[in-house]
Amino acid sequence: MPATRETAPPTRTSARPGHRAVAVALLAAGHPLPATAVTLLTAVLAAATGRGAAGCAVAAGAVALGQLSVGWCNDRADLRRDRLTGRPDKPLAVGAVRPATVSAAAIVALALCVPLSLASGRPAGTVHLCAVAAAWAYNLWLKRTVVSWLPYALAFGLLPAFVTLGLPGQPWPPLWLAVAAALLGAGAHFANVLPDIADDLATGVNGLPQRLGARRSAVLAALLVLGSAAALVLGPPGPVTPYRWVLLALTAGVLLATGRGRGRVPFLGTILVAAADVVLLLARGAGPL
């Protein structure tokens, strides 16, 4: 998700790319790094709550399909903008895969996501599909508004509920876990758009980070992500163990080191913090949250 540079549409040649090249380009258009990170986070969270191997696989599969549908929807919706700003990292923008192929992939992934989400039970499935709907709403509309952060916060905040509602008795997750996930999602939004703010403004995307500017958005991203880690440290009942304080300090160090970087470095730092959050969560021990 990304001085306007007027560029011509990608040059089309008579030779069509092979099936393997199209498959690779299609995968790249699905935003594989964040999709993999969120899927792994779901699998670990499901394992920590005791959902079992089958339950973990079903939850992770539903999230993977949802993430891919969102990624493909994002690149298809941004095709005109990505061509206008000359994005060589976008397979659609450079003509490596056809728009119709990406559109079809997004719809198929979304359609498959529905029954796989509901396989965890109706309450859990409904929660996850609401999260996916929020992400699609971001791609198609809300990214251009002052509440551009809200779909991220909502989708991430609902992720723990999707996992726990699939347990026997269908319990809701503790408030501190939902708050931590929502803060992480909102922080990821601000970190993700940092390198693209100038291009976004030039092409009509005026979300909250674009209105605040790169410097303030970078500070806000770090504070939100640090708040997520703090919620995991301070939220659970009982005394805070020393190694949790150490992990929180390391989290702050990662944010400080990556927050001043350029390009996708701040976003990669957010993913590292998400991994630290998983460690903080697992430090509580296995079993229901």
Structural class: mainly alpha
Q: What integer value in Å does the Rg equal?
A: 19 Å
> Tally the helices: what do you get?
13
User: Strand tally, please?
Assistant: 0
CATH top level class name: Mainly Alpha
Major sheet: size, sense and barrel closure?
none
Into which percentage range does the β-strand content fall?
Answer: under 5%
Based on CA inertia axes, which overall geometry fits?
globular
Q: What would the average pLDDT be, to the nearest integer?
A: 85
Our measurement of the CA-to-CA distance between the termini, rounded to an integer number of angstroms, reads 33 Å
Number of domains as seen in the coordinates: 1
Low-pLDDT stretches: 1-15
Topology:
Elements: H1 19-29, H2 32-48, H3 52-77, H4 79-84, H5 99-118, H6 122-140, H7 149-164, H8 175-193, H9 197-202, H10 208-212, H11 214-234, H12 242-259, H13 265-282
Helix pairs in contact: 2-3, 2-13, 3-5, 3-6, 5-6, 6-7, 7-8, 8-11, 8-13, 11-12, 11-13, 12-13
